[in-house]
Prior knowledge:
Helix 6 (119-126) packs across helix 7, helix 8 crosses helix 12 and helix 9 packs across helix 12 (232-244). This protein folds into 2 domains: 5-82 and 246-255, Glutaredoxin (3-Layer(aba) Sandwich), CATH 3.40.30.10; 86-117 and 154-244, Glutathione S-transferase Yfyf (Class Pi), Chain A, domain 2, CATH 1.20.1050. The longest helix has 22 residues, at 132-153. The protein has helices at 13-24, 40-47, 65-75, 86-102, 104-115, 119-126, 132-153, 157-177, 191-199, 201-204, 219-228, 232-244, and strands spanning 5-8, 30-33, 54-57, 60-63. The chain contains 12 helices and 4 strands; from the N terminus they run E-H-E-H-E-E-H-H-H-H-H-H-H-H-H-H. The chain is of the alpha+beta class and 258 residues long. It has a 4-stranded mixed beta sheet, with helices on both faces. The protein is 57% helix and 6% strand.
Amino acid sequence: MIDPVLWQFKYSHYNEKARWALDFKRIPHVRRSLLPGAHVPRVLWMTGQKAVPVLVLDGRAIADSTRIIEALERWRPDPPLHPSDPSERARATALEEFFDEELGPHVRRTWFYEVMPDADFTVAQIAVGCSATTQRIYRALYPVVSTIMRMDMRINAEGAEAGRAKINAALDRIAAERQPSGYLVGNTFSVADLTAAALLSPLVMPAEFPYPLVTPLPASAAKYRASLAGHPAFQWAADIYRRHRGQSMERPHSLAHS
Length: 258
């Protein structure tokens, strides 16, 4: 049997959403890490689009974190991320869609607006775990890569200001939706909790994030993060990580077949 292969960025909250689902379901898998910009030819060839994560499962390339989780729910139903009760499942997937659309893009745009002026920090974080040679090359290419990123994700002052408002609204939604159980839907951890916490990971910077997080933050990013740290939903996301992120199921490439 061939293990699933996750094509990913290490430093990406949507990729973290897919990784977390694989780990939660205890699915051994191989991770192939790419660098933003350099990833485009391979991902475009596999899927006809340029975004990661992409999961290759039983020979089929699946793009988009939500579609990946849907496929994993069919492929490995237990433990479930979709509640068995139809009304709770509908609520969980509706919250997943809300966070995918109303939180994730705004975290990405706002956070990169704060960190990207510090080129050394941004390259060190994006290329974490890469060889020194790769990091030097990526640093030399950073002016071009950062320009493309700014254009592609509309990273600018206006976008960051709008993003902060969206992030605040999503944090308030989490606080309002939280049930007496501590979860967003019913009495158990679900795709709603996973999605909200994963998409907040660049801001929360949980210790359980599976790759090293570079510190110290640039001053403006540290100030923005500190402004959110007292919000109940910020603390909730950190607690969800502590309770449910669990152990990595990544396998070395050499053990990819069994």
